[in-house]
Amino acid sequence: MKTVFISGSGRKDGNTAFLLKNLQEKLGGKFLQLSDYSINHCMGCWSCRSTGFCRHDDDMENEIIPELLFADVIILGSPVYFNNVSSIIKSFMDRTWPLRGKLNNKIGGAVVVGRGYGSESAITAMNSFFLKHDMIPANRGVSGEAFVSGEIVQDQRAIADVEKLAKRIRDLGERVK
Questions:
Q1: Along the 177 residues of the chain, how does pLDDT read in single tens digits?
Q2: Which residues contact 134 (CB under 8 A, 6 or more apart)?
Q3: Which of 48, 57, 80, 133 is the most buried (most CB within 10 A)?
Q4: Dihedral, CA atoms, 162, 163, 165, 171, nearest 10 degrees?
Q5: What is the 3-state secondary structure (H, E, C) of 110-148?
Q6: 160: exposed, middle or buried (C-beta count within 10 Å: 0-12, 13-18, 19+)?
Q7: Close Cβ partners of 93 (under 8 Å, ≥ 6 residues apart)
Q8: CATH label of the domain that carries residue 100
Q9: What angle do CA 86, 89, 92 make, to 5 degrees?
Q10: Structural domain count of the chain
Q11: What is the 3-state secondary structure (H, E, C) of 29-80?
């Protein structure tokens, strides 16, 4: 299965990246750090409704969307900010509006890291994204608890949940084939 890991953290080697890369070791695939790309926010102009493409000529349109279309599995990762996903992953999700009908039946996985509150809201946002695109959410998602960079290594439950998510994605991949 072709898997793409999307990190919505501003920290390249932070807690979110740790869990995503742990999952990547189990599944293989490509890791994309959204902060490395130029992604404009959706302006709600709806030009994509008539053209099928976003009017922004940026890295989202030219580099990230082709990866999404090629993938069988899309894993989203985000720190929890103000009880939700980070702004960059929210912009990413908003910018996939032109992909309506093109991501259906791909498998989705959600990974968040926070301080213990707000994680459920962030996972719900990601799973809503998957459902909006008629994707298959693999499970309820992985919720890690950490604040200081590197602290996630102490969350053995989250690390075990990454293993469960990897197994579920492999199982779904076999069934979807």
A1: 999 999 999 999 999 999 999 999 999 999 999 999 999 999 999 998 888 889 999 999 999 999 999 999 999 999 999 999 999 999 999 999 999 999 999 999 999 999 988 999 999 999 999 999 999 999 999 999 999 999 999 999 999 999 999 999 999 999 987
A2: 101, 103, 104, 105
A3: 80
A4: 160
A5: EEEEECCCCHHHHHHHHHHHHHHCCCEECCCCEEEECCC
A6: exposed
A7: 76, 85, 125, 126, 129
A8: 3.40.50.360
A9: 150
A10: 1
A11: CEEEEHHHCCCCCCCCCCHHHHHCCCCCCCHHHHHHHHHHHHCCEEEEEEEC
pTM (2 decimals)? Answer: 0.96
Q: Is 169 left (phi over 0), alpha (psi -120 to 50) or beta?
A: alpha
